[in-house]
Amino acid sequence: MSTQIYRALELMLRSSCCQTIRRRSCLRNAVLAPTACVPGGPVFPKRAYSLDSLGPGRPSLGHSLHHPGSERTSPSSALVHRNLSAAAVQGQFRPLCRYDYLDLGEVEENVRRAQACKKTRHFIVDPDLANVVAQHLGPDLQDSKSVIFECNPGPGVLTRALLNAGAQRVVALEGDKTFLPDLQEMEERLDGQLEVLHCDYFRLDPIGSGSVKAPTMFTDKLFTDLGISEAAWTDDVPVKVVGILPQRNERGMLLKTVYALFERLSVFRYGRIELNLFISEKEYRKLVSPPGEMRYYRAFGVLWQMACDIELLHKEPWESFIVSSRQSVPSSKGKFPNDHLCLVRLRPRADLFSAGLTPSNASTLLMMVKQCLAKRKVKLIDRLNLWSPDSGSKLLSELGLPEDILTGNVYPAEYLRLFQLMDKSQEFTQSWLYEEILENTQREGWG
Amino acid sequence: MEKLSQEKKNKLKKQQHLEQKMQRIVKEKPLGQSKGSKSSLMATGTSHKIISSAAKKSKADMKLSDKIYAAASSTTAVAAATSAKAAVAPKAPKPKQKDSKSKVSDKKAAKRATTEGKVKVKDEDLANVAELKQRLNQQGQDWTSLSTTDSPQDGSKGSLCGDIQLSIRSYLEACVFVGDIERSQSFLLSQHRVMSRRKYLTTDVYNIMMRVWAKRGMLNQIGRIFILLEEAGLKPNAGSYSAALECMGRQQNCSPKVIWRCLNKMREDGLSVDDLFSQCVFRQDERDMLLRAIHTVKPDYEPSLSLNASQCSSPLVQDFYTKREHHTYPKLDFTQEELQERFKRQLSVEEACTVTIDSVEGLKPITENMAKMREMLAEQRAQWHKVLLQALRESKMILAKTNTKAYKLDLYPYLCLLEDKEYVDIMIQSVTNMPPSGESLKILARDVGNRIYTKYCVRQKHQNQTVEKLGSIYDAYTDLLAKDTKVYNVLPREQWCKLEMEQHSGPTLQGGETTWPYILILELGTFIVDIMVKNLKINSDILNPAYDRKLIPILYHMYTFRSTRQVGFIKPHPILTQMQQEAMETKLTFDSSVMPMLCPPVPWTSVKFGAYLLTPAKLMRTLDGAMQHEELLEKCENLHPVFDSLNQLGNCAWRINKPILDIIISIFNERGSEKLDIPPPLSEAPKIPHFHPQDPTYTASEKAHMKREVINAKKKCSEMHSLRMDALYKLSIAHRMRDELFWFPHNMDFRGRTYPCPPYFNHLGSDVTRAMLVFAEGKPLGPKGLDWLKIHLVNLTGLKKRSSLQGRLEYGNSIIEDILDSADDPLNGKKWWMEADEPWQALACCMEIANAVRSPDPTKFISHFPVHQDGSCNGLQHYAALGRDVIGATSVNLVPCEVPQDVYSSVAQQVEELRARDAAKGLKIAQVLEGFISRKVVKQTVMTVVYGVTRYGGRLQIEKRLKEIDEFPKNHVWDASHYLVRLVFNGLKEMFTGTREIQDWLTESARLISKSGHTVEWVTPLGLPIIQPYHRTRNQVLKSTMQHINLQISHDAKERPDTVKQKNAFPPNFIHSLDSTHMMLTSLHCYSAGLTFVSVHDCFWTHALTVDTMNKICREQFVALHSQPILDELSNFLLHKYCSTIQTEARTKKYQEYRRLLLLLGKVPQTGEQETG
């Protein structure tokens, strides 16, 4: 308990330093902080240490106070201003604190390090790009109480940009050992806003057997270590994930994630985890394919659209990223262009589980949608009748859909309502569809 | 305009030319001049049309071929231009790239420097290259005798185009078969008219139509087809002339002049009359009609046929074929009459195509519920039969009406090949055999399609009137096999060929049926499955009257999802599954080829003829749709030793070991026994926990847990079901055969390993099935037979692996009490046999020993029991022998030793030593493993290392073994298996140094060959050509109404070879091919010594009496095989095959590659001292 008080004190102290700038937010921070962070874990010693270090850091803070006017005009430029002034005292030997500007590093050096990576990965090295991403995670990063998970930061350009933008708590999950020392060094220089873990976010919760060694990890271990507890679905977003989806198995990864979301497994046990991912343009277009687009409107997109608010935040050409392999630009076969990586925000809907859908019957919904959309040009009524003979037309009329509607023309929301109706009816729960689900929960489709 | 008129002129010229030609031909025709001119007019009409319409139709045709054989062409990657977008990107990467480039060039420079530094070495290389080239030139002539010398591209004439050609042929033949001449004629013409479609037509396709007209005696039509041939730029072949002459023969008053003209024309095309008789396949009375036509002009002509008696080129079997005076070929223990009787029974089985047999579950008492269910099912089936018949007829009508375009390959003729009822029977059969967890659409469709094809083949044989002839030849053939006839000095194949030649009139036995392309089989199958899914219904309240009555489908089409792919599945409704399971029906229906044969199989005499009487069988088992093997085999002139060996294996008669069968069935119908490998019935399966996912009283984690339980229970159930069904099939077949004598026809895989054709029940099966089989023929034990039985028994127990034979015999004698007890009271006694490695075979052996011991004179005891002699790790033996590796050879028993060496134990011992050392050093996992390293743990891995198992696979194998040890801590399995596989690999590397070198040479050769764009091919010392069917995958989509089926074809010889597979598979495949060669050699020589011999790959079986002789032959043949310069010959062959197109342009990259390949292939690994052990 004493540590908590200690911590609260620290935050109060700190907030008082910059009251003029962000009075409201800091207050909220001070009040909420102890509850948001569960005690335990390796976090606290650092925090305590950082309190001591506040002393020498103060002059620079004071310095920034001199420009309150510019602060109001535009937050981003203000940050830059402040940071620039912070940079002026950077040469002093002292642990960095949150308001110090972090040098994003020599581009050349970062490129070299990124390209040395043995696995094929994309990296953000361009400082401008990193800042753009950081802003999109905002708008008010310094206010947000969400923890940011940065997946595979590599040389850490985006990490620094996030911290510079005022992120309160960044967890860098790096899967490649070679990047760890530098990140850890940065972690040590900071007073606790950054935690570095040897963990590959995209290899969480492996399905196969065998011993689990870092960077592979189970979600519960990760979250327990970080002191993040399970939250109700309707609560605010507890964690924002930001990163570049590995190109090797984009679709499989996204499928695995959306299944986990519906059943509230993996990270989604801990609440509405928001994903901010760079995915290939091609895959993004499939993700947001509307009904009627018979070629690409598939279970994959329907499920995501049903579960999340999807927002395209930013488009960036492939060339802006550094790739650790020779083949830098993926081929674009198929209908969609594939010139960009798209930063997409996938924020799970708070009302997803409000009307009849529960994590336990969600697997049936998944199966239903997948069976329906395996072919898009079949009549929905035929599918329904297959599961429960003669009930198709009744259901369709309840939904207000025409009798001859094709499965590829039904909106995600309509599928959700269809499922809710089906789930209530006795006939469907007797159907083999329900049996099927049980067999397939093994999820060979996680790939 | 000018151009146009020019074109017209050209056309006219062409036409005139054609007309002239036609008139020339027509003049040769027998019909009156007036008719002739009429036909010529008609013909010119068509030809004119053809020329004018060709351009128009070409587009439509493209569509057609695309549509029907929508082979998704490999999508070429479109590289996006990077430079255009570089402006947006940071400039940083650019100089970087340059940097790396310059580095590369630096490296190149460095390389150049080093190569220049090694000028001397290079000179040597050059000398080598020159020498090799010379060698190639010299050998050129030697190799021409082998037919495999064509350039590799030739063999890949291939799949896609081949598929279309095959489809066209199959379609035409099907039309002709059902008598739909109009359809076939208009189809051929519409194909012919359009250039892009015409290119798929071959002379043989035109011949199909000629045959039809010949049957009807319509010479003018044949004349037209000759014109079409000429238009298409094709040359008439023997088949064309034979049809023309046959037609003339059929006409009562055909003028000799016409026949003469035809014969003259034929001579101009370089064909003799004898060629007709030797090259053509005759159906019905075609041959006689042909002869009649020829007799009208040459009354004395008799076709001079010679036996294809070219002697085998392999020195390994030269003596076998030339020096036969001491051979005593075995006779079968039957009279000729008995064999002929058996033939008739087998024939009737195969004519029916399916057999219905009693299930061994039928021996159980019938409960009330069972009776009820059986009755209900029977009722339903009758109903379904009616519904399906109706549906089939309707869809046929729709098909017939909708296809208005003559050129379209539709399914209609294929749906007329059989009686409607037969299609329905096939459908009902697949419903009955449907596993409760369903079947993927692709597999189901393939099975259905194959069934239709088999039936069609059998009917074709009837239509061609080959069945009668087969009967008469077979009757004569039995003379060779029967015990009551004279002793022959020829092999079965030779006798059969001789008989065929003697009885030359009538149809040829090898009907020349076209094998359907895989895609057609699938398409037809899907069509049939679609009818089933749409029409088979049942009342939902049939089992539970509480439900509302609705008509629900019993089969439904759905998808399962694997990774990002979706797989179409056909699943039975739970109601159907429940009914079928509860009814426990007493009858099982199989394809007739599943049953062993009731008479000795037809000897293989050619690639396309052998094994079953009517059911088609492949000489070489291949992937569905892979054609390259067959093409290669057909080009091969002399496969006699391979045929003879397969015939020898197939001629071994078997019977059931009834006491063992009865015990097994009793356990099977009780509760099964997992320990004894008798799968228990589903009633023994874990109950599937029942819960409602909606029930709010469960917490989330409880629900998750229960879900997992349910899944596990279901998985276990479906595993148990498939095991149970497999055992049920085997036992039921055995039960059916309990009083029979029977035969297993054999064929081989693409490396020459032999297999019995019937899939479920054969001597290659598990311990249980092997124990049920004994030789039909009995032989006295002789002086040493009883000892061999005892040694065999000890071998089956898995004990005393390191004892000498004498030691094993002594051990056997010391436990004679246990043996007798097991034999007398297997289930209630001391149950000694149950502890053996192979318990059922051990029990059978116990009984045999007991009977022998108790007989008045054991040496005269007639034993039917097969005694096995295992090769000890054949793969390593072959490597050791190839490398003349003395140490290695000793440890695999190639060098005679007092005590048999056991390589597995040696490796285990070595691994144990290393482990102890590591444990002493404090390595945790080594300490955990203390006391767990046994022969059994390492055996499989050691055995498969030579067959190219990787560390990954090796680890899985060891993991499996470790999991089987109950005491071993489960949490260490993964680490331990990792650790052990490393030790095993290191241990083997030390023991077999020569092996490594050869393996590496083979791998590297395959890699370079594959890199150069070729598929690895070789020829076994017996002359069997082998080709590795590993290529890059091509996707082909079959679009059916139900779903699109995506076929991933990895064996298409047109695609580039898959280098990784080609290289990894070459060493094991090569060793397998040697190992099969050795088996074939042994089998041939055993045959000439009059022994009964069968093999399970490297395990050879014979009577106890003849074990010593077999062992002697086996050893002699091993020595003989390895006295051949196998590696040198392989090197020569590969050099000739892949380096014969000598590249002269030095300095190009291609030349460098060529040179590297040349040098590598020429550099055979050094071998040890030239002694063979």
Automatic annotation (TrEMBL), chain A:
Residues annotated as domain Ribosomal RNA adenine methylase transferase N-terminal: 129-350
Pfam families per UniProt: RrnaAD
Tagged with keyword Thylakoid: no
Localization annotation: Mitochondrion
Predominant place of localization: mitochondrion
Alphabetical list of Gene3D superfamilies matching this protein: Vaccinia Virus protein VP39 (3.40.50.150)
GO biological process, one term: transcription initiation at mitochondrial promoter
Protein name per its UniProtKB record: rRNA adenine N(6)-methyltransferase
EC number: 2.1.1.-
Protein family membership: Belongs to the class I-like SAM-binding methyltransferase superfamily. rRNA adenine N(6)-methyltransferase family.
Automatic annotation (TrEMBL), chain B:
TM annotation in the entry: none
Biased composition (Low complexity): 80-91
Biased composition (Basic and acidic residues): 16-30, 96-118
Location in or out of the cell: Mitochondrion
EC numbers, comma separated: 2.7.7.6
Chain positions of PPR repeats: 202-236
Highest taxon listed in the record's lineage: Eukaryota
UniProt keyword list: DNA-directed RNA polymerase, Mitochondrion, Nucleotidyltransferase, Transcription, Transferase, Transit peptide
Biased composition, class Polar residues, residue ranges: 34-50
UniProt function note: DNA-dependent RNA polymerase catalyzes the transcription of DNA into RNA using the four ribonucleoside triphosphates as substrates. DNA-dependent RNA polymerase catalyzes the transcription of mitochondrial DNA into RNA using the four ribonucleoside triphosphates as substrates. Component of the mitochondrial transcription initiation complex, composed at least of TFB2M, TFAM and POLRMT that is required for basal transcription of mitochondrial DNA. In this complex, TFAM recruits POLRMT to a specific promoter whereas TFB2M induces structural changes in POLRMT to enable promoter opening and trapping of the DNA non-template strand. Has DNA primase activity.
Family recorded in the similarity comment: Belongs to the phage and mitochondrial RNA polymerase family.
Name of this protein: DNA-directed RNA polymerase
Provenance organism: Fundulus heteroclitus (Killifish)
